[in-house]
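User: Predict the structure for this protein chain, please.
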Amino acid sequence: MTDNRTGGIPHQPSSGLAPAKSVAGTYGIPLTGPEHAPGWLKGSTGFGDNGHRGAFGEEFIRMLATAADLDVSRRERDRVGVDWQLGYAGRAGTRRFPAIEAQVKCTSSPDIHGEYIHYPLKVKNYNLLAGRDYEIPRFLFLVLAPADPFAWAHANQDRLLLRRAAYWMCLHDQDLLENVPKTGTRTVHVPRANLLTVDSLHDLFAEDYRDMLVVS
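Assistant: Here is the predicted structure, written as structure tokens:
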């Protein structure tokens, strides 16, 4: 069932979610603190800035998509609001070589209200996700990362741990914002039930989303 509040179909199960409460800042990850920073950081001018965080968010998605055995390609020029295009061979009885596109955002200060994460999208970015006039289904992928970049990843001999999580949202059932300054923002409500996992990434290739498009 399509629901404008959740931004897409089908909905992911909501069981097992943490108790709802408004969270900001570190989102449960303790800060390392400057006293623990390595020596090389003193000469770094971009560690933990918006560009660094955005790059981490994009690589978080690529790592997850690779684990899901999806083909991942990047747009050489960011002109159409797409960071990654994901594709795979398709399942038996489905469309061959389906593809989806994703715009990736990353935040370390998520504004959580109950079962939704409120995220302000620039009007330009919103209009590059909303509406139905697309050849390929596209999604917003929102990555939540700790405020402290030292907590983003931890590697040892047994595993590579990336913190913290990513969520998806589809805006094809929403109208474009017209006569609105492009410098403004529109807050979207990303469902916390829409957790990105290996399984849910495959679910986004369902015909349900292609059927939402004018060209299907």
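The longest strand covers residues 99-107.
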